[in-house]
Design a protein that fits this description.
486 residues; mainly alpha; Amino acid/polyamine transporter I; 21 helices; globular; binds 4-fluoro-L-phenylalanine
């Protein structure tokens, strides 16, 4: 039957697709530069704790909701709770998918553009970072350049999702993920064999604890959500194509392990090269697009390594972007009974269009500010700092407090009977982290966001944070009251 729900063809297919969603720009572009800015090894230590104590429990919860309901985020909450509040939470997840995809494709588009620039040999003229950053600013300052690659990347994403869960997402991930891994290993070997690479390794591995502040802990936590694709239902949607035979805690552990491994390897490849070529490691978001081309220009065989690097970045971004589009598509297929092909084409183009102001934020719309920031910055801020942690908060609350733990246990046990029998404490630990640790930590992130923006208290962004907080507190209050009255 054509409208029967697809399922992953194999366990490995699911792991690779989910790891593909997790491994993306967050690992290769963002993680190295935030680690570089926040004390290297010390930051990595804090980040690993956030991943293990908060990321992993929330990931298990998301996949579990998906598998139990066999639905998209809206359908899942409808099936499990039916209360309008939770359906709205699911809808916000679908909306977050739209928003993230709309600006994610812009950066991923730059990556394709940089493959072309590397092939053209443009990087060979980069004697120092100033030339390289001028070149970069020139490219992104050109609306046509940014829009073309944004469109190209969006079409690639649509192509994979159009082919379906098995033929597109699963088969695509089975090819792209091993290629990505091989490319990264080649780049790591290149990096560590450069003279002077040990300085890069030392920077990456020797902790500078003085750089660990409240803020860096919060950056680590926020990034943990982004990098594991949590809080907006992407993992829920992928979980909805799983069957009861699969062991969710073990699969989640494997996904988190692969995501962390790739981030660390990317860090090693990048910092060994940057130090060996005498560049500044703490330049922030420009590390990949400004600094690395200079590194490639100076490196023997640099053109080949530059092409490989930006190909790696593009593939990683593609396997993440397809998971974002799949959330939106699954919603229209499940809830509105649209044929998959129609949903992909319509919403692929809608996100492409919503992404246009993000693409123009670096050129013709760079002076058009909303609440003091460009459209791109607002989209990134809204999604990464509010919608994802907010979604994570509500998912933890739902599974920890609302769904009912007896039912949660029954569902989680499916496929992981042996784990339950042998290690009952692990399951108990998961419950505690989900019920108490994750919600409290995420609330702290929100409070911090308010603190960070104190100086701009009149800005509407702050109000968003406040509103989210107030809604949470009211909801918790009502929920507790209802429980007491039962
Ligand atoms: N995890 C992706 C990355 O690290 O680049 C980003 C992402 C993908 C976030 C999918 C959220 C999502 F649903």
């Amino acid at each position: 039957m054509s409208n029967q729900r697809e399922h992953w063809g194999s366990k490995a297919g699911f792991i690779l697709a989910a790891a593909g969603s997790a491994i993306g720009l967050g690992n290769i572009w963002k993680f190295p530069y935030i680690a570089g800015e926040n004390g290297g090894a010390a930051f990595i230590f804090v980040y690993l704790i956030c991943i293990a104590l908060i990321g992993l429990p929330v990931l298990i919860a998301e996949i579990l909701i998906g598998r139990t309901t066999q639905r998209n985020p809206v359908g899942a909450f409808k099936k499990l709770s039916g209360k309008p509040f939770w359906i709205i939470i699911g809808s916000i997840g679908v909306m977050a998918g739209f928003i993230i995809l709309s600006f994610y494709t812009v950066i991923a588009g730059w990556s394709i553009g940089y493959i072309v620039e590397a092939l053209k040999g443009s990087f060979s003229q980069f004697a120092d970072p100033k030339v390289s950053s001028d070149y970069f600013n020139n490219l992104v300052g050109n609306a046509g350049w940014v829009l073309s690659y944004h469109t190209l990347f969006s079409l690639l994403t649509m192509g994979v999702v159009y082919a379906g869960v098995n033929k597109g997402i699963e088969n695509g991930s089975k090819i792209m993920m091993p290629v990505l891994f091989i490319l990264l290993i080649i780049l790591v070997i290149r990096g560590i064999t450069l003279p002077g690479a040990e300085k890069g390794l030392a920077f990456f591995w020797s902790p500078d604890w003085s750089k660990i502040t409240g803020q860096s802990v919060l950056i680590a936590l926020g990034h943990a959500f982004f990098t594991i694709s949590l809080g907006m239902g992407a993992m829920m949607t992928y979980g909805s194509y799983l069957s009861d035979k699969d062991n969710i805690p073990i699969a989640s552990l494997q996904i988190v392990f692969l995501d962390t491994l790739i981030a660390l390897l990317a860090g090693i490849a990048i910092f060994t090269s940057v130090f060996a070529m005498g560049q500044d490691p703490a330049v922030g978001p420009g590390l990949i697009f400004h600094t690395l081309p200079v590194v490639f220009a100076k490196m023997p065989g640099g053109v080949i390594f530059a092409v490989l690097f930006f190909l790696l970045l593009t593939l990683a971004a593609l396997t993440s972007a397809i998971s974002l589009l799949e959330v939106v598509v699954a919603y229209f297929v499940d809830e509105r009974k649209w044929p998959r092909h129609k949903a992909v084409i319509v919403f692929g183009f809608v996100t492409l269009l919503i992404g246009v102001p993000s693409a123009l934020s670096f050129n013709v719309m760079s002076d058009v500010l909303f609440f003091g920031h460009t459209w791109f910055d607002n989209a990134d801020f809204l999604a990464s700092n509010i919608l994802l942690p907010g979604g994570g908060l509500f998912i933890s609350i739902f599974v920890g407090w609302v769904w009912g733990f007896d039912k949660v246990y029954i569902e989680l046990k499916k496929g992981s009977e042996t784990l339950f029998e042998k290690h009952p404490r692990i399951i108990l630990g998961w419950k505690i982290f989900l019920k108490y640790v994750s919600p409290v930590m995420i609330m702290i992130v929100f409070l911090h966001s308010i603190g960070l923006l104190e100086s701009a208290i009149l800005q509407i962004r702050t109000n968003w944070v406040m509103i989210s907080l107030i809604v949470t507190v009211i909801y918790l209050f009502i929920n507790l009251k209802m429980r007491n009255n039962k």
